[in-house]
Design brief:
By secondary structure, the protein is an alpha/beta fold. 50% of the residues lie in helices and 17% in strands. Helix 1 runs parallel beside helix 2, helix 5 packs parallel to helix 8 and helix 9 packs antiparallel against helix 10. The structure holds uridine-5'-diphosphate and magnesium ion. The site of magnesium ion (MG) has 5 residues, from loops.
């Protein structure tokens, strides 16, 4: 039996400040793991504009375990994860951020979970959000609650993308062809048995986070649209509600006229009702538009990413 391989997949976008330190760390961990597996380091350069790619090239020259895919532009982390899973040769695959916020010292423990045969994936969960802006934590928490309610896809609070999985699960994730990829949701959707390990939040050591506040808001809305059709049903519910209310009002108007006569009035009421209904209608059209625009992008079947340069190995055919 040949030795099993663990692929460490690392999406990198402008990470020249931390990449060398990160590489040092995972090399150390690879030595620890060498008892069970040999490692592949697969860097996915997501169209970095700094020296990230040349750093990676340098590593690849001195270390044959280092492989990489470099995108023609920035396609986003979700695309980078997809490319990583696709090009990884490992029997096990782990996704890690380059900024050392996903502590490499957990790798042996994660691998143990898979080797035990009891789990198909081991994922890390932050038990706190130390060092993160209050408002950001608050919104994140709200988002996970909302997402859970709306989509029924149960993502544990504080779930990160730091996750090790078997080849089988990685292939399942790859088999989902959607372009609008909400990876956290996809991992839950494909099922399999997952072990969660909690850890304390680590602040980014060097370089800076690529997320802006609006970026995160967009990410959350995407997550909901990607996994739930409930927002579409809101229109029907509101429509039905309006019908009932208007019927009651009609009855009330008839009764009122019969009893008290019909003095002209109610102009402000009219305006309020018109504005209210107009608002609801626009909102619902907006929600429709969200789904429609996503559909439009899916239907085009564009590739998830375009690689400009890569050094990877063909995966051996499964026997
Ligand atoms: N990343 C990427 N493409 C992007 C943005 C980020 O590949 O468009 C990578 C980044 O290099 C890092 C990981 O995704 O390895 C997480 O990014 P970041 O640390 O900015 O996110 P945060 O930890 O703040 O959620
Ligand atoms: Mg980070």
């Amino acid at each position: 039996m040949g030795e099993k391989i663990l692929s460490i997949v690392v999406p990198c976008y402008n990470e020249e400040a931390v990449l060398t330190a990160f590489y040092e760390e995972i090399r150390k961990q690879a030595d620890v793991l060498s008892e069970h597996v040999s490692c592949e380091f697969l860097f996915v350069d997501d169209g970095s504009t700094d020296g990230t790619l040349s750093l990676i090239r340098g590593m690849a020259q001195g270390d044959e375990r280092v492989h990489y895919v470099s995108f023609s532009r920035n396609f986003g982390k979700e695309a980078a994860i997809y490319a990583g899973l696709k090009n990884a040769i490992g029997d096990y695959v782990v996704l890690m951020d380059a900024d050392l916020q996903h502590p490499p010292e957990y790798l042996p423990q994660m691998l143990d979970g898979l080797l035990s045969g009891e789990y198909d994936s081991v994922a890390m969960r932050r038990s706190d959000r130390k060092g993160e802006k209050r408002i950001r934590s608050w919104f994140s928490r709200r988002f996970y609650r909302l997402n859970q309610k709306v989509s029924g896809v149960d993502i544990p609070e504080g779930a990160t993308d730091y996750r090790m999985m078997t080849r089988q699960m990685a292939d399942a994730v790859l088999s989902m062809p959607e372009v609008n990829r909400f990876t956290k949701g996809i991992f839950t959707w494909v099922g399999f048995r997952t072990k969660w390990i909690a850890y304390h939040n680590v602040e980014r050591s060097l370089g800076k986070s690529k997320w802006t506040f609006w970026g995160l808001v967009k990410y959350s809305l995407n997550g909901i649209v990607a996994f739930s059709t409930i927002p579409l049903a809101i229109a029907s519910v509101l429509g039905a509600l309006c019908c009932v209310v208007s019927m009651l009002m009609a009855v009330w108007v008839v009764v009122k006229t019969l009893i008290w006569g019909d003095p002209v009035g109610g102009f402000p009421t009219l305006i309020t009702v018109i504005l209210f209904l107009g608002g609801i209608q626009l909102l619902m059209i907006g929600i429709l538009g969200q789904y429609f625009s996503k559909m439009y992008l899916e239907v085009k079947h564009r590739p998830m990413y375009i690689a400009k340069e890569q050094k990877t190995v063909e995966r051996a055919e499964q026997e």
